[in-house]
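Deliverable D4.2, example record:
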Amino acid sequence: MVDAASARSAPPTALELHRVVKSFGPVVALRSGSLTLRPGSIHALIGENGAGKSTLVKIMAGLYRRDSGDFRLHGEDVDFTSTAQSKAAGIAVIYQEPTLFPDLSVTENIFMGRQPTGLLGRIDRKAMRTEVDQIFRRLGVTLDPDRITEGLSIADQQIIEIAKAISLDASVLIMDEPTAALSGVEVDRLFAVARSLRDEGRAILFISHRFDEVFDLCDTVTVMRDGAYIDTTPIAETTVDDLVRQMVGRDVTELFPKQEAAIGEPLLEVTGLTRPGVFHDISFTVRAGEIVALAGLVGAGRSEVARAVFGVDPYNDGEVRMLGAGVARRNPTAAMRSGLALVPEDRRKQGLVIDAGVGGNITLAIRRRLSKWGLITSGIENRAAKEWASRLEVKTHALDTVAATLSGGNQQKVVLAKWLATDPRVLIIDEPTRGIDVGTKSEVHRLLSQLAGEGLGILMISSELPEVLGMADRVLVMREGRITAEISRDDATSENVMFAATHSSELQS
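Output generated by the structure prediction step:
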């Protein structure tokens, strides 16, 4: 193990934070943040949501100023008051969702605000393009420097941000949850780029909730908990169990606490659902007390099926029935009345009113039920919201806390609470634990298992194979818009699920 003191004394260092404190009024976001990054190394920073990782990153990026503690860059004390100062000092942050100018080209985005000029003060576009070509060749990526950035994938946008950092000669690159929206191939390309940057002698900080990525990519890992530094360890000297224990302060013995539930009557019946070019002949049943997983690779059509079943998206042929009665197409209100609920994949954009309070979000789908003669009192709304916030253990100081300020895990709990408040018979939940920490994942899994035990039918869409295998009673595997396999819990393995997701021949249980 490497303690904070010894990590500080071992040269050379690219960046060093020691016992950094940051508060926002009475709320202490960072009690004692410590981190040491070294040139030519990829360093993981992990911790549950709310552990203080984002606050530490924002201090490094110049968005926040620390209240106390040490901050050194290449051995020199620094105190950034703006993001421009941080960038000028050689620190670059690659966010999960880059913010580029969509109407400008790749090259123009990379050189925005610092275009080189030639004779008569004109922008030297040839010099810009030549440098971008050289950077892309160094990174081993093929991307057209003249292409307009609108429509580019998140993965390509991240490459543009990395190229911008290289053009600025950044010595420290911070990658904040960069793989959350990437496919497997895109992750592999990003990791190849990260390794090439490490080999050039740059210091890289990698923030992720995915342990497989941390162990695959990183040399060293620092754990934070409750706003404080816990430990720094070489990757080769630790295990997932060790890291989980440090992150949550306890052993998480059951990440997938699946309890046995009596499987009852059919609740949701989907027959022949078809939307040309998106999905074809989709048929399945979800029964009371059953968790059915829709598995498959990104782009297989899983989310599109869920949205069509709930009436958000159209379909051309087929039928959706709840408790034996047909559900009107393209009509989410009718779907809700039939007993369906949908927790979408993108909770911030589709599941929450992000600038509204926790209480208002939880009661959003039941306001008509709570109102009397078209009016609703804050007391009635708060009582309903408090019940569900308490049951789902939403960590918030007050029901009027703005949803945007919550951690990802607590935002997911608020979305779940909103839909569970409608008393659904079938819950469709898309990527239930994406982007949330391991402790909260266990809580969400326990809740889903408990709901199934109470007779709720659950259709779960997940890209995480351990989650699929750990929670599902049945696995439906999709490939290119079709169901290629139906596999029972007892028969499901990583191998046969992946085989069905990548091969066109059907595999039956």
